[in-house]
Design goal:
Strand content: 35-45%
Structural class: mainly beta
Shape: globular
Helix content: under 10%
CATH topology of the largest domain: Jelly Rolls
Number of helices: 3
Radius of gyration: 21 Å
CATH architecture of the largest domain: Sandwich
């Protein structure tokens, strides 16, 4: 593809086509005011084995519904929500019962569940549970210390399927609006645990459905055993910061679609299902080793339709990227195409890199110096330079259907081993 056509693509995408990808980091952040007022006293010691925190096999209820927003001071128990235990077989993952949570999604509001009994997390390294949502949802999981410091992660819950959620506590990052004097998660000071649906912030931005929703949860447990690291949230200065290896089976990328047909831009969550397929052979691991081959990668199959852009967004809730010099990722496509990688700062300045992929390439490792990424035509930045300390999100999009005479077909894209790399 010649440079003229590439320039045409950037022009055709300006200035509106990327607005659906911007300002979503706040959506994935659990509101601190909501978390500061809900929780329970922490326990002392965790057993040196996997502990079933809640299997929902009886009517004992250890969870309570809260609601925050839309106004900053609007917080309290959600009297309209319903939390209970169901014995309906089609709503249970294992055993005889599961938790159900019926709540309302409204613009600018966050609905959350808080555990109401003490947590004994000393010695714990991971949390695991099953979750099922009746609608696509942006979820957050957080632990709060007695001093108000909040450590959190986010993930995407696809509709109508049980999803295993496995979170290594080393992956939790300190929320920017809740400072911690020692900068680390202290398990002996945990005062509350929260599961939140922040989809209310997406009602207007992505036209998400508002109104009643239901989620189900089963077999919540913690373990002294770690899970396979999928992210490394520490500083990038000493080598590389892994953004996602996809080994835990948790969806951290949000599927999006931008529709430019009809003369008006519409952004929404994509219907294209996410799954985990076979990963890139020999990909590097956080400890510097490599897999024998395969393992997991994020895979999605979608339609390429004229005027529509498929995209995937990964929000970086926190992390120290100021030492990053380049970004690397591994991609595979079933059909030739043009893709766009973008890195966005907290002020929504967006830097981008066009990527041409061919099916014949198979798995292809790509690496780009961050200094070479170009400021988007529909974006502005006061210093016209990517500030790595301000990076808030990464997005990948398939632009093939936007090309003149672009192919209309079904494509399968696989993504693996995304990381920022420090200067050598």
């Amino acid at each position: 593809m010649d440079k003229t056509k590439r320039g045409d693509i950037r022009f055709r995408l300006s200035p509106r086509c990327w607005s659906g990808f911007l300002a979503l980091c706040a959506v994935l952040t659990i509101t601190s005011a909501a978390q500061a007022q809900a929780g329970a006293q922490a326990g002392a010691q965790a057993e040196a084995k996997t502990v079933k925190v809640d299997d929902f096999e009886d009517a004992t209820m250890n969870w309570m519904a809260f609601r925050f927003g839309p106004n900053p001071n609007d917080f309290g128990p959600d009297m309209e929500a319903k939390v209970g235990v169901t014995d309906k077989a089609n709503q249970i993952k294992t055993g005889k019962g599961s938790l159900y949570y019926i709540y309302n999604v409204a613009p600018g509001s966050v609905s959350l569940l808080a555990m109401t009994r003490p947590l004994e997390l000393a010695g714990v390294q991971s949390l695991r549970f099953w979750l099922k949502c009746d609608s696509p949802s942006i979820m957050g999981l957080a632990l709060r210390e007695q001093n108000g410091a909040r450590y959190q992660t986010s993930f995407y819950c696809p509709p109508n399927q049980w999803q295993p959620i496995a979170v290594d506590l080393s992956e939790l990052t300190l929320a920017e609006d809740s400072p911690d004097p020692n900068g680390r998660l202290d398990l002996d000071q945990i005062q509350g645990m929260y599961l939140a649906d922040a989809s209310g912030y997406l009602v207007q931005a992505l036209g998400m459905q508002q109104g009643a929703r239901v989620l189900w949860m089963d077999d919540f447990e913690h373990s002294p055993q770690p899970i396979v690291a999928t992210v490394t949230p520490g500083a990038v200065d000493d080598g590389a910061q892994l953004i996602d290896s996809f080994e835990s089976g948790v969806f951290r990328w949000v599927p999006l679609q931008l529709d430019t047909t009809g003369g008006q831009l519409k952004a929404r969550l994509s219907d294209a299902p996410l799954s985990f397929g076979e990963g890139a052979p020999g990909k590097a691991q956080p400890d510097g080793g490599a897999t024998a081959g395969g393992s997991k990668a994020l895979t999605t199959t979608y339609k390429r339709e004229p005027g529509k852009i498929q995209g995937w967004l990964r929000s970086l809730l926190a992390g120290d990227l100021k030492g990053a010099a380049s970004i690397s990722l591994v991609l595979k496509t079933s059909g030739d195409g043009l893709f766009l990688l973008s890195v966005t700062e907290k002020d929504s300045s967006r830097y981008q890199q066009l990527i041409e992929l061919k099916a014949a390439d198979g798995w292809k490792k790509l690496a780009y110096a961050l200094s070479d990424l170009r400021l988007g035509d529909d974006s502005t930045d006061e210093n016209k330079a990517l500030d790595t300390a301000q990076i808030k999100e990464i997005a990948l999009a398939d632009l093939t259907a936007m090309l003149p005479g672009g192919a209309v077909n079904t494509n399968t894209l696989s993504l693996d081993d995304v990381r920022f790399v420090a200067k050598e």
